[in-house]
Automatic annotation (TrEMBL):
It comes from the Bacteria. GO terms for cellular component: plasma membrane. Residues 6-130 form the Mycothiol-dependent maleylpyruvate isomerase metal-binding domain. It comes from Acrocarpospora pleiomorpha. The lineage of its organism: Bacteria, Bacillati, Actinomycetota, Actinomycetes, Streptosporangiales. SUPFAM superfamilies: DinB/YfiT-like putative metalloenzymes. GO terms for molecular function: metal ion binding. Residues 143-238 form the MDMPI C-terminal domain. This is Mycothiol-dependent maleylpyruvate isomerase metal-binding domain-containing protein.
Amino acid sequence: MDYAAALVEQNMLFGELIRDADPATPVPTCPGWTLQQLFRHVGRGDRWAAQIVRDRVEEFLDPRTVRDGKPPADPDGAIRWLHGGPRALADAIADIGADTAAWTFFGPRPAAWWVRRRLHEATVHRADAALALGVPYELAAPLAADGISEWLDMVADTQRLGRPASLDPGVTLHIHATDDLGPSGEWMIKGGEGGVTWDHGHGKATTAVRGRAVDLLLALLRRPATDVQVFGAEDVWATWLERTPF
């Protein structure tokens, strides 16, 4: 998957979705936020990642200190500012090299790691905007499936760093996308003493959750989703959601 191209596309779609919307519109899935705050969060986030990469930051960077971190007041300038974020990140990675180590939430990773992270930040916040505006939201199944895998990686990483495990030891959760995705559309998640591990695969689990990849992604990220079915011990799914806050 071309993550850089997908990030540009999702950024463009996000901008077009909210271009003519009332910036004061509340965003229910981001409590306390308006569309204006969501817009600034997405646009600043790309520049935040770009600055981390370009400046070889070695510790958490306060987003409030990001260069050019506020959009212009005029709507057209604000949209151009939004679209400049992915370009700033791509330029920063090109300058230092995609494989050069960069700071992340989980320790040093190749700088290119940030492109995939920012991509899936954009896909989910585009869903937040769509839900706030009451319009349909769609995402290609392969991209939604990759978002699920990326999210599960982050859940596993945070638990290795000390966050409470989202599944108890010995408990398993099977996520199954009903799209035609082959092995990449199934995820087997296992609870252990040090947190969860996962891999692509099919098997009997304590609890299984089925649905389209886009709906599964939204459900895993605690956004409203349609046509997601839970089989087996429903309390396992409820506990997973309680222990994996965004």
